[in-house]
Amino acid sequence: MGLTNTFSYGNLSLDVFMHGVHGVTKLSRLMTDRNTQNEIRRNTIVKDWWTEDNPTNEWVKNDALAEYMGGQLGLYYEDASFVRVKDISLSYDLPKAMIGKVGFNRIRLYVTGRNLFTFSKWKNNLDPELDDQYDIPLQKNMYLD
Question: Could you read off the pLDDT of 19-30 as tens digits, one per residue?
């Protein structure tokens, strides 16, 4: 879905573009065990892991328990629906009396913000639009030895 709106008053204009997706369930690779970024995930996301001393149903196990659990690891799926404020531009047209003296028909000054807000229940703190953290543009060979 997408929505574009322009609000104008005098020489000022405010353009807002929002887009989003509803009803998407995706594998959360950052929340699922056995992924490249495990160390980052373990240090940033507090989980109530299942252990013999803590038999909860919140998080079934982690890599440390994989051997104990017969090598089986759980996958974590979650709602990846989101609404994002993609672009906001505030513009001001300089008065014609001011710019006519320098030979221009129109001068517009802009202030623009991109990807300012994303509203989502997606817990892994990466972009819910991406399939995994590898879709984030990185410098070539940034993580290769």
Answer: 999 998 887 766
Q: What length is written for the chain?
A: 145
**Residue pair 60/50 in contact by the 8 Å Cβ criterion:** yes
- Verify that 88 and 141 share a domain, yes or no: yes
- CA distance linking residue 67 with residue 56, whole number of Å: 18
CB within 8 Å of 119: residues ≥ 6 apart:
82, 83, 84
Q: How far apart are CA 88 and CA 127, in angstroms?
A: 19
Q: Total domain count for the chain?
A: 2
Q: How far apart are CA 142 and CA 5, in angstroms?
A: 39
Look at residue 122 and tell me if it is in a domain: yes
16 and 85 part of one domain: yes
The pTM of this model reads 0.64
CB 14, CB 85: distance < 8 Å: no
Same domain, 38 and 11: no
